[in-house]
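hey can u run this one w/ guanosine-5'-triphosphate bound, need the structure tokens asap thx
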Amino acid sequence: MEIKGRRASVGKTRRGVVRLKPDGMRNSGEKEKEFHVVESGDRSRSVRGSIRKDGFARNGKVSDFRLSQEKPSYARRGRFAIDDSNGRKKSETVDFKPRRRDEELRSASREALSKSKLVSKEKKMDHKKEKNGAKGDSGEKFLDQNVIGEENKADLSEGKKRVIYQTRLLDKTGKKIRGHKKDSDDEVADAERKKRKRVIRIDPYDISNKRLDDGISNEEKPEVKEVEPSKNAQFRAIQPSPSILSFVEDNLLGRRRLNELRNAGYNVKLPAPLDNIPFSTSIERERIEENVFRSKLEFFAAAKVSSSFPPPLIPEIAFAGRSNVGKSSLLNALTRQWGVVRTSDKPGLTQTINFFKLGTKLSLVDLPGYGFAYAKEEVKDAWEELVKEYVSTREGLKRVCLLIDTKWGMKPRDHELIDLMERSRTPYQIVLTKTDTILPIDVARRAMQVQNNLKANKSVVNPVMMVSSKSGAGIQNLRTVLAKIVRFAKP
Ligand SMILES: Nc1nc2c(ncn2[C@@H]2O[C@H](COP(=O)(O)OP(=O)(O)OP(=O)(O)O)[C@@H](O)[C@H]2O)c(=O)[nH]1
Ligand SMILES: [Mg+2]
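ok here u go:
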């Protein structure tokens, strides 16, 4: 068993924390136990320790440990008493006598060090003397005392007037000898000044990380205002419900390590690996249970103005959201017909309302994205107007999937569209996309946040869906939800 720890000096008493771990065990946080060590300044060097976490010292004899300190050469062995913090019988006493050889070596090295310092100091002094001797022409020096200041004139009587002199070394001609070192009093004062550490205080009310030098008045502390936590902090404080958390876990949503996916049986070399059958030997996609999504996806109309919308003959599901949120990619992932709907990493690829037939029973409608896009303002405004008109007036529109990027959450434009759909009573469902880009817990938090935000809304359809077109996570669930619409839709 080995004890390793750091010690810091506090006056004569040394305190520190040592970690105890059994021999041969790699650094495993769980097994390490923390001790508080107090080493008194006296010769006995007793060290007291108490087991913080339960049940450790019971098993192992604490012996042959080392207290590693600031300097490894000061490592010692000694007497060590351990008391279980719970008061149970787990105390151990171990010899903590400084090893003789170590102690001897240490004192020898200390002596040698101090000697060498002394010698080098003497050498320096000799050197200085020589130098000063060479500077003065004939080696003669004169003291020049100039009165440079008076102190407390009012308080002091004439006789007791204190005068401050500045002493300079002058040569015969009255010139100042350069390189003259101050006398011993000055040296002592200098050494003291050097010894005195500059104390720097941190202002606890200052968030600018500025350091304050000692002496600067800090009495006027600004009033601590109740600052609203940042959006990020608010987001981190969200506690997702257990059902959302388990949904995220069950569907492997969120950014996952490849190993995790591999262990779950998925072939990570495939695109959308979660869409595959786990542990399958060949590249076999999971069977699409919903007939409608097995049908062929065919583009049949594009509209830039409402007058060119095709007649509403079959039920429609539309995909709306900000530019680049992943609308077109989701259409491909749902139908597993990659490439039918064009996608791009450049926001604003879809510039018209595109109608796709999925068999004979359903239309999927890819809407142009709003918000940021590489397009002129007036063009973007026109798209937005078109989208608004479509979602609020289209007959046969059974549901709008409003896609939200999981990483960024809902933006003002999303709220605008939601308000519009609330007014026009268009049923809409939130789909969080690109869940593979953030941690699972953050996916759950986002879902919780969105759900809470829309609690009071009437036309929203719950639950909040979470998908990733890239990994395939959550796609199957979305298919199931959307297929139900077709099943219950009246022609
Ligand atoms: N990591 C990740 N990237 C995705 C996902 N879905 C889409 N993308 C990427 O996001 C980018 C935009 O995807 P699109 O499907 O074209 O987005 P869009 O919403 O149709 O964009 P617009 O047509 O411009 O409105 C592409 O580079 C996709 O590869 C996803 O689930 N995960
Ligand atoms: Mg698109």
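Confidence is low (pLDDT under 50) at residues 1-84, 89-99, 134-161. anyway lmk if its weird
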